[in-house]
Amino acid sequence: MRKWLPLAAACLGSFMFLVDTTVVTVALPGMARDLPASLESLQWVANVYTLVLAVLMLTAGSIADIYGHRDTYVGGLIAFGAASLLCGLAPDAATLIAARALQGIGGAALAVTTFALVAGSYDGKDRGTAMGVFFAVTGLAAAVGPMLGGVLTAGFGWRAIFFVNLPIVAFTVVLALRSLTNVRRGQSGARLGKDGARLDPFGMITFAVAAGALTYALTAGERGWYFVAAAGLVAFVAVERRRGGGGGPLLDLRLFARPAFSTVMLCAMAGSVSFACLVYTSIHLQSGEGLGPVRAGLAMTPLALASFLTSTVAGRFLHGASPRFTVGIGLLAGGLGCALQAWSLTPGLVVTGIGVGIAGPSMGAAVMASAPKERGGMAAGAMTTFRQLGQTLGVAVLGVVYQSESGLDGVYLTAGAIGLVTGGLAVAVIRRAPAPGVA
């Protein structure tokens, strides 16, 4: 039992961080009444969190590699808890939005370290089991966020969705310090941080410009920011190429020369685009069917249960299977499930949940196996960043489809097509990942 404490410590932080990406949506009307502010301005309570996550995930991965995954995780927990307290005490909308930005800083640290901590704490079949449970918990968190937000808001007011984080943070910090080992590794296994490793400030700045501008353009619909994003991306690539593998880059571009790594990054992004259709399922259940957030959350339960059970089983029994098979099958099943929702919601949610349950642990294991161990935080940060950007892109692209004549059915069919094509790409391109450290 004691050996699973590191998994519990990582899952608690991941669950809390993911719930907070969706929990505020149902609380916005209450915030608007209590803080005298418009719903439009309060949308930034949700958007600024997503924006900060996209900007800082890669940086958080680099910091974790240098100063240690556990210490970065604990620091993220403390920052997240302090920001949650500020959110709950916020006297006005501006303070709340600023506190949510600080919460996003802590969330970025949680997002990249939890994944790497689970992968680094176990070996063999235990790792497969741990990864399966971890991704099952993340899938469950995404599904129950709106429902939990509805329950807390209805029973205790909107401030409760932030105050509830405080005891979770306190318990998780203690558990993490007692059960997790802080690992710092250099490019050849040497310890970093105090031993001379350097951060990449120019890489951080240029990536922040690129990711932030792209996320803002997608969420706010400001087309001019796409040019800023493109310029930031060009500058980022130039900076990272100049630093090279030996200068402590924010993202070692040589990783993309590995077909397994680059394909999994593409699959993570495209898969997130496809699974973003679930956002519109929730919207339709509440606005189209007239369900409240709690009942809408219950209607999504088949997805959460299927994902949870499949992830738990797949993590253990698919250990050692080729990522070509597991990632491909997961994305194909997810795409099929998305398309099936156009005809029958519940069976479609079940099949989508099965696909998510297979693809999540498989992509996680594949990307960690395709990168050197000392680049674990970097690899985790890269995949989490690609998934976050894919989610944002998916909401924007599928939103255009949702507003068109094809409506919700068009969203499901488009998402299904993306998932099926991405799954086919995974089957065609991904091979068994090389051993860590193999160029």
Biggest sheet descriptor: none
- Average residue-wise pLDDT: 82
* Helicity range: over 70%
CATH architectural category of the largest domain: Up-down Bundle
**So, the CATH homologous superfamily of the largest domain?**
MFS general substrate transporter like domains
Mass-distribution shape = globular
Ends: how far apart? 37 Å
CATH third-tier fold name of the largest domain: Growth Hormone, Chain: A
Q: How many β-strand runs? A: 0
Spell out the helices and strands N to C: HHHHHHHHHHHHHHHHHH
Unreliable residue runs: 186-196, 432-439
Describe the protein.
- GO terms for molecular function: transmembrane transporter activity.
- Residues 6-434 form the Major facilitator superfamily (MFS) profile domain.
- This is MFS transporter.
- InterPro entries: MFS, MFS_dom, MFS_trans_sf.
- The protein is mainly alpha-helical.
- The chain folds into three domains: 1-192, Up-down Bundle (Growth Hormone, Chain: A), CATH 1.20.1250; 201-247; 254-439, Up-down Bundle (Growth Hormone, Chain: A), CATH 1.20.1250.
- It has helices spanning 5-22, 28-34, 39-67, 69-89, 93-121, 124-156, 160-163, 165-179, 201-220, 224-243, 259-275, 277-288, 293-299, 301-317, 323-340, 345-370, 376-403, 407-429.
- 58% of the residues are buried.
- Mean pLDDT is 82; it is low at 186-196 and 432-439.
